[in-house]
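Mods, move this if it's the wrong board.
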Amino acid sequence: MQTIWLQQHCHRECILFFNGWGMDQTPFHTLPATRHDLCMVIDYRTLPPIDLQMFADYHRLHLVAWSMGVWAAAHLLAGQADRFTTSTAIGGTLTPIDNQRGIPAESYNAMLDHFTADTVEHFYSSMFDSHEQLTTFLENRPQRPLNELREELAAFRDAALDAGPARNMYSRKIITSRDRIFSARNQRRAWGKDSAEVCNWPHFPFYNLTDWHQLLDTP
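Not the wrong board. Structure tokens:
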């Protein structure tokens, strides 16, 4: 697991962003955080404890977790939920590999068992339903080697199945209704129809935003 500062401009508030599988910072450079510093977590081949002391000088700390990062963040940080002013889950669930409330196990295992460069390309395509957004992403695609992505996919499966469902620590849950990775139906089952909001977004929602603060459950 790695932490990368995307923006560090001495703001009083910081967003800690748990990214999805296979990602790095490259696709996110076009989305500004005008009011916050922004620290990104990637690469779930290992899941070591996180020391939040590095954020101690911030007036407020916000958590945003997307896709597989929803489970990873809650797995690692649920015991420190009170350190976050707001916490947002988007396009993911606390049961990431689950036939009813996550990605169906058969689909996940098939992706892992037949993993090639074409698998990654298909996954990228499935994150979008807009050719324009997909093109933007591919022009800014993650710069990580193929073997590393497969290792992460396998390690995440083992960790998620061994640990089981993560504890809910999220103050805001966003269901991505046009999602072809985590289906909207399974997201609704996972969160409950009355405890989450629905946004008309694909799995990768960030090109529908103009600033990171739109994802925060600001008090």
